[in-house]
Amino acid sequence: MILATKPLPRMPLPAAPLSRPVEKPRKRSQLRNVYRLVFVLAVFGVLAFGAVAREANIVAHNRTLRALSAEVADLEARNAALRVEVARLGSTAHIEQVARERLGMRAPTTLQVLTLGASGGN
What we know:
This protein is mainly alpha-helical. It has a domain at 27-105. The protein is 63% helix and 0% strand. It has two helices and no strands. The termini are far apart. The model has no long low-confidence stretch (mean pLDDT 86).
């Protein structure tokens, strides 16, 4: 047997087990909760952005629809006015007036009109 001539260095004894949970798992749990919170907030952010974008799109389409409806109403009014003008210009009185004033025409005299008999004789 060999005996030590020098005293052995003193090694600290292992610490007694703590009654509280170790800090690392608690930090992991807190970190996991932070990640969950960030994920939930990101999901809500994306949903909120989608809802706002959809509403903005609806507002833009409604504005376009109102502008087109106003344009349709204007064109229908113009179409009605043009129909009235076509009816006025196509009337017999207007045609006679244009024939007299612009074309220099006049009503025929009785000598210029030939009447054909309806006697049916050969």
